[in-house]
Target: CsbD family protein
Amino acid sequence: MGIGDKMKNAAESAKGKVKERTGDATDNEDLQAEGQADKTKADLKQAGEKAKDAFRE
Model:
């Protein structure tokens, strides 16, 4: 996995965490759900990249 991909996934995950916490703090369920979705999407991308790396070795 390239360092650029790692950075993008980490940034997307962090963005999701911020949205989730902001939604929780403001009782905005839509924002909270959107943040959880962003985090999950980033985690799945990260897992996919790790799987690709495992097959390359």
